[in-house]
Amino acid sequence: xxxxxxxxxxxxxxxxxxxxxxTLVLESGEFFSMLGPSGCGKTTAxxxxxxxxxxxxxQVLLDDVDITGIPPNKRDMGMVFQAYxxxxxxxxxxxxxxxxxxxxxxxxxxxxxxxxxxxxxxxxQHGDRYSHQLSGGxxxxxxxxxxxxxxxxxxxxxxxxxxxDAQVRVQRRExxxxxxxxxxxxxxxxxxxxxxxxxxxxxxxxMAQGRPEQIGVPAEIYREPATPFVAEFVGTTNRFEATVVExxxxxxEGNGLMVxxxxxxxxxxxxxxxxxxxxxxxxxxxxxxxxxxxxxxASVTAQVxxxxxxxxxxxxxxxxxxxxxxxxxxxxxxxxxxxxxxxFDADEARVLDLPxx
Length: 357
Description:
Blueprint: E1 4-13, E2 16-26, E3 31-35, H1 42-50, E4 57-62, E5 65-66, E6 77-80, H2 92-102, H3 107-120, H4 136-149, E7 154-158, H5 166-183, E8 186-191, H6 194-200, E9 203-208, E10 211-216, H7 218-223, H8 228-233, E11 238-245, E12 248-250, E13 258-260, E14 270-275, E15 280-284, E16 296-305, E17 309-315, E18 321-327, H9 328-331, E19 339-344, E20 350-353
Parallel strand pairs: 3-8, 3-9, 6-7, 7-8
Antiparallel strand pairs: 1-2, 1-4, 4-5, 9-10, 11-12, 11-14, 12-13, 14-20, 15-19, 16-17, 16-19, 17-18
């Protein structure tokens, strides 16, 4: 296990700032994910940690030792590439042994370590197969075993599951987490898949335009997004603009729906109110005498079936889109075109300053 730090790291490619004064700390034994869209800088950061790129400014430290100028093969790091990069002319076992052979380890030690790791990743019976004889998921497991064979201090993974089917990705990400936890190794994981990052990480850095927008534990990232970008990239959210009135905010004029505007925002300030779809409840307009007072009047425009949950897509009279996740049994009561009322608990709303235009 090792503590890894990026300290004020900057990397430019021409006029593009791939990383802009980035500081991150991975504690010993932590599973840390960098999450973001293409071009946000997450892979560049991983390559700098691995030693494949040299930063224009800043440092990479391993247990407080500056390794910025040390070549990749001297960093004690294991790497799982997006394309796995297995040697096609070597068997699975020989691929796992490769790093140990380069380091001059004896045949007995190499074979013992390879057998141990193939067993760890569930491929003990597939050591004699070549990469073309293995499924994508099996190739990924061989790549992971190869990265671990050298007993690295840090495990680096660059979108290792992106080429796999959805169901296989779920199985493999759980296996990666199990192995990382079992070995206690510090891991840096790069992905564009928010579900993947949230499900297996101790902490997540959401990246945008070369910098972390927010760093936190998965629940915090999801429930308390620091910026509109984080709220929209990590899951789905409803956006409402509102005006502060006496410490609260009127969400829609005339319906009495109020949310608390925290942090002493002044009267008249425009704010952004973010509400996750699962926080909304929906009833038919007029059901039991219900009115839009304290709720949002809307009409159903579509239903998206997601198994036990169905996403109701709606629109308010002023054209604001609204989405609510309700049980599929409850959704069966609604049809496209129905007039409905959507409500949510004010405590479930996230209030942010409205970004300047």
